[in-house]
Amino acid sequence: MNLQDTCEAEDDEVFVKETEEDEAGNDGLEDDDLDSQPLPPQTMLFPFSEYGKVCKISSRCQVTQTVELIERKFKEEVVWFKRHDQFKHIFHMPQEPNHQTQGMWVLMLRTVKTDLLEEAWFVVNGVPIRYSIKEHALLSGFDCHSYPKEMNTMGNINFVKRIFKKESGIKVVDVLAKCSKMKHGSDRLKLVLLYFLVKVVKASAKNDGNIEEFLLRIVGDLNACETFPWGRYTFLECMAGIRKMMKNMNGFVKPKAQPCFNGFIVPLEVSNL
Prior knowledge:
By secondary structure, the chain is mainly alpha-helical. It has helices spanning 3-24, 31-35, 63-73, 75-83, 88-92, 102-109, 133-140, 158-164, 172-181, 186-202, 213-218, 222-227, 230-249, 266-271, and strands at residues 43-44, 58-59, 112-113, 120-124, 127-131, 260-261. The N and C termini lie far apart (60 Å). Residues 1-34 have low confidence and may be disordered.
């Protein structure tokens, strides 16, 4: 057999092997390769006719205002935040006085309809873009590990009961009022932290809205607040915020609509820069 016949025989073997792999359903790709493949666009939540419409997204995530307030009024507590492995990124990031959400709106218009609860997909200029907890971890700097098994029992409600004389129905304005009247100490730090969690991390309640029980409980234990995976918490809140917005809009931009995005909006805003 000459050299040409040998090369042709080897090519035939490679072709047969690739064909068998294709028929097996993996296209000759390893599992890691399959995981990295972009999701093929299926159904867009908004038709192309809506892409040129303008809409102003509102957000209750008040990063700049909250950071400025803490740095101005609670100078002793700022030290704790700037040493926190996760929250320090918020205090070190450049502050934007004029918060613009137009880029976020362009991204939301191009959301792909999927059944995934822990991934969001967008198609911009024909390119599928995935937003998963991996991207969230890179952009936020928060800990995105799994929730601890003892999550439902972390912290305690004793601190809140002692300060507010009740353990539910506590509003954001109540927290800020207590902070302003209290002297520096561990109690004031916990209240400032609670205010920060509500206005930046959770970012869903109005000033007169009730604070969720988990946040009231976890601030009772500062060590738990330092080790808790706030990245996973903010990511899941973000996914819920996208689903809620898409459901409310139902594929069409209503005149003068101002949909509100709940949750920590910053990483998603950064992702579309």
